[in-house]
Amino acid sequence: MKKKVLAALLSVAMVATLLSGCGSKAEEPAAPAETEAPAETEAPAENEEPAEAPAADAGDMSFEVVSKGLQHAYWQAVKKGVENKAAELGVTVNFVGPDSESNIDQQVQQLQSALNASPTAVGLAALDTNSVMDLLQQAKDSGIPVVGFDSGVPNAPEGSVLANCSTDNYAAGALAAEKVYEAVKDRISGNVRIGVVAQDATSESVVNRGLGFIDKFAELAVADGHTATVVGNDRYISDSKCEKTEGANVVIDVRVPAQVTSELSAADATALMNEADTIAIYGSNEHSANGIITANGNLNKCGTGEGQIVAAGFDSGAAQLQAVRDGVLLGAITQAPVAMGEILIETLYAAATGGTVSDTDTGCQWYTAENIDDPEISQNLYE
Amino acid sequence: MTDKKQGNAFTNNPIVRAVGVQKIVVVIVLIALVLFFCVKSTSFRQYTTILSIMDYTYYLAFLGMGVTFCLITGGVDLSIGTGMFCYALIGGYLINQKHAPVIVGILVTILCGLIMGTINGLIVSKGGHAPFLATLCTMMIARGLGSIITGGASITWPVAGSPNGWTRTLFKIDMGGTKLPLGFLWVLILAVVMSIFLNKTRPGRYIIAIGSNKEATRLSGINVPVYQTLAYVISGFFTGLAALAYSSAFQSMTPGGGGGIELNAIGGAIIGGTSMNGGSGTIAGTILGVFIMSVLQAGLPLINIQANWQQIIIGVVLIVAVYIDVLKNKKLA
Amino acid sequence: MGDVILTMKGIDKSFPGVHALDHVDLEIKKGEVHALMGENGAGKSTLMKVLTGIYSKDEGTITYEGKEVEFSNPREAQDAGIVIVHQELNMLGHLTVAQNIFIGREIMNGKLIDDKRMNEEARKLFDQLGIDIDPKETMSRLTVGKQQMCEIAKAISHEAKVIVFDEPSAALTEAEIEELFKIIRDLRDKQLGIVYISHRMDEIKVITDRVTVMRDGGYVGTLITKDCTKDDIINMMVGRVIYEDPKTESAVAKDAPVVLKVEHLNAGRMVRDVSFELRKGEILGFSGLMGAGRTETARALFGADPKESGDVYVNGQKVEIKTPQDAVKCGIGYLSEDRKRYGIVVAKTVAENSTMASLENYMKGLFIDKKKECQVAQEYVETLKTKTPGVDQLVVNLSGGNQQKVVIAKWLVRNCDILIFDEPTRGIDVGAKSEIYQLMNELVAEGKSIIMISSEMTEILRMSDRIVVMCEGRKTGELDIAEATQERIMHAATLRD
Amino acid sequence: MEKIKQNAIVKKIGFNSLVLLCVMILLYIMFAVLTPMIKTNASFVSYARLVSALKYAYFLGFLSLGVTFVIATGGIDFSIGPVMFCAALISGYQLTSRGWPLAVCILICILVGTAFGLFNGVLVSYAGLPSFITSMASMMLAKGLGSVFTKTQPVSWPQSEEPGGWYRNLVGIKAGGMEIPTGLILLIIGAIICAIILNKTMAGRYILCIGSNREAVRLSGVNTKKWETLAYVICGTLAGMAALFYVGKNTTVLPGLGDTMNNEAIAGCVMGGTSMTGGVASIGGTLIGVLIIALLQEGIMAMGFQIHYQYIITGLIVLVVVWADLRSRRRRN
What we know:
By secondary structure, chain A is of the alpha/beta class. Chain A has 13 helices and 13 strands. A two-stranded antiparallel ribbon of chain B has the order 1-4. In chain B, strands 2-3 form a two-stranded antiparallel ribbon.
């Protein structure tokens, strides 16, 4: 029995040491100016110069930023933008995100916890607006300003979200569709298949990037006198606005793997590229684009030449940049994550200091092997 | 009692007995499966299909080989799926973020596997924990560790063509436009080595003995905890290798991912005739079983089976395989 | 017969509650086969376990090849040349014969195991022994007899100087025993010391040179085999003072109704065509040596193990007993020989164990009526005189005798009319024993019927009204208590095909 | 020490539970002290934080209570998390897409859980499959079925003001700015009912006894298979109920998820003194164990850490607790 008591106490001690242990090496910019020797890893630049004279009360300001995750290079870039700006303004920011873009419950818990910390303001990229409805109301009631980012917080209760520094995922998907359509429109004769690899059918931003592509592509095809339909994943079929025609000659085939692991998205990309009538394929985020690149590693079918499959990606990351340079991918869409992070903090700061805030669209760009090194583009690319 | 143990003419055939009935059945199922996919899908009939099957085979085969040793001792290692991701993340993090030489990244990846395997082994053999519980805990630990070290970011090992991208050619080499699944060679070599290890060396022999009758093994003067631990160390080592195979075949590893992959590997081993009760199992069987899993994984999307159905199919395959194992053991008893 | 190779002197060993060995002596010479005899529980196996280091001794000395030794594990004993061929086979079923023989000391070829040479060596061993076993065969596919031969081959391959055979013939066929004897004689001619533990009187006469008899953990004496008769040995084995007078005649009326009738029961190798009847108010003793198939018969009858064929009639009605549930419904209760594994749930209380088989009678709607449960448990604690601080005491804290009473209470609470007592007093001290006996007598007086399986001759003779004797799965005798003697029972118990 | 243990009140509550309660309070104090030290401007002590920790404990609590029954029989159920998700998806889909009445959907939700429990129970007790691998396979089935049923779409249960939003009152009722934690009341009621089932009914008695000594129970003429199956059915049913509290808190459920919940639910149960070897279970302990886990999560978040730390800590705690259990058991024998 004594052993049990001991064990119980041991667990507490363990938790304590673990937490204090991680406390010291945590990379959260708890108070960048004061921390004597933070483990400088990610962004050495930000700590080198002391922040320029911060506003009088900036040091007391703390922002909670709840993102959709941290896995993708995209989110890492947003985080970088947030941290840069925070250091510049001298405010405290706590940047958190769930384990994956499917873990709604974790995000709810994180947002709840963020509100409980009574921060000056909260930045939120909601995985699912429905699930945070009550919490937004709570934020409103307790007077904590909320600013949406990334896909923002659509349909939020009136007055709870002050502004959105968002990027229009649907429009970004549509841009990809335009570019891909441009490249393949002359090859659309008889039955053709357009493949779409999506990471999941659940996260709002991924779904919108997919739907934007599907709808735009179908629209363009129909405008040119073709007929179009969507097959594959049920969610994309039911949510796309495309007029589905029986026996259409342009088939948009959407595949979604069971889990967010690389080998499964590669399997779906392989299946799509193996279809004899596939002329184009689109991966709607870094993860899916990587799946296409992996599949092409075996199949060697991607390119712009005769009989090859035109491939397009989304976001960046080392593998994708390489693939764009090599011509495996025709191009990819990039949003402006670093800028988004910076603008988010600016907006939060403005909201906290009583300034006026307004919606911002941080936009998106199409990049190819030609313009990949343009400074305008490359500032938004990251490995 | 003796009569029951004598099979029919088929099972008593010396060749059949040397190879094992189950393996022959698995080969037949495998061939049937391949034929089925070939008939149902034109794209399955291409050379490139072999390449993508191989991509799944590499890491599953490594995981399967490792976990076979645990299964043979009568245990199991549930940490392999999550562990594989965790080690690959740590290795990749060193290469990408810390600019360590690739070789260091590789060694660290394998080392992580070895360390985790040793921890598993010690918890099971010295701590006396039930293997599934012990490895469930280390699975949780591996899951958290991978995320913490990379700060939650996913990691891509150097891509093919980049200066450090040579790791990728370890498994797939470009020979004048045709890609050759070089990794299969490593799988084969390791399978042969591990077969010899299992059947022809003392540690291998003792691992089988422990699974067959732990007490009798102890009474034969064999240091049971050492060899029991060794089984988990081997599993950890192969998980490290699987991490390399995975990261070179696919692009990115997400922190916290990899859960569920262990079921494919364990399922492969059981299909290949390794018993959940310990004492029996072969590397060749595991490789065959893993092939069934990887052919399913590559083939199901090609015949337009959506992902959610794939999970159900693999779940059912798993239950059937385990049930056959249970029936087999009942017959032996 | 040559020099003395092994001497055990004044060996004493106690387990909690049991004085297992009481200053036992044993002396083995080179080139002799030395029988070690005694009833079940006389301490033969314990003595051998002390010799090979599985148990440590409390007192006494072991002298081996002129030096005093103390082995701390079987491996050390093996290395020194003392090997035991176990009663329960220590085999690794998944490995081959040769792999089993050489486990722990494989023949190596560099870093690899040289299975080919191991097979050859094993083959040589078998040739030497004159047995035909394929060294490459998987162990679990061999018959029990062949497995035994492998154990012997393994022992010999250790370059043993002393080999202990612990009931080697129990599972063997006639032909296999012949083979075994041939081997043993060969070994004797090679000047090995052999200890042969067996119950079979005929074998002892055939194969051994000397006999040491043990009784109740004590040393009785050593005889030269050829100078004594079978009866001499039996007398030494059973010759203890019988504390209570044996029952002289059956207490059951001749016309008492038959409550249980078993016809042609078959269940595996250990239960072959067993038929018997049990009358109301009768204690039917089941006697026999270890491995006679008594427990197996009881378990098959009770539905605990599947049976192949046979009819069971309870109170004249034919019943189908496939599971213990069926048996309990028919009013049969079974008290296992292994209480801890099959009888009680040690982590539960006396009350909970008492109502285990009849919980449905102690419900108040959906809930267990704990008050009623405790009441009935208390009632039986009092009638059975169970020593426990209270009915909420965990059974694990009770002594063996009191645990047994809890199991009895379980079946009495269920109100079973037919009770099977399997070794009811095993591991129970003397005082508690007589209480259990008294209890059994009270039970039959109340009109219950009891089947009592016992390996203790005194117990059988003291309690039974009628005795069924079994040997190797068959019923080899049925004696009324009036005509039963220890000798007659022992004769029936060693009556082989 | 002995004196405390013999105290009548202590005995009634259970010494273990008391120790756990102390651990919980210690943990709370620790977080209260550490939070402001690690994160500036942060505090841990507030009603809001308490409520948010509790909300996490509701669904986890029901899962944990359920799995306590299975662990009491000496088995394990790794499918509870995905089953909870599957139940929420199927019933939520009926509620939102088909417009079925709420009451019917709540019933469906619970019945889906029951069905999975029955499936697991039959496979484990009647077919004799090992529980951990069976439940892992049915975990895959649950994930797959949930996705298939909803066509991989997320299901958002109604908001409180919408029709059919009444179920949210199960978690909490807003009354004048304060939130009444109805969930806590229901969880406690659930725990009391579970405690009654476990300790006062025939089912509970036999479930515990099976875990302690299955063979002895069988030889007492008890239908062990039936009761063992019932343990899984209870577990599944409670997982179905947990689903209601999950959606009550999180509104939206995604297909193909839920395996992380398993580990935490099992951890809560093991921490509460339920022995992995079966036979010993404490509902009160489970309840406190779950609260500790919820507290831990809230604390980690309050200090501004990523969620990953929780995995590692939970894994370590389970190892230590099980180790202590094994030690004390060994000592007793």
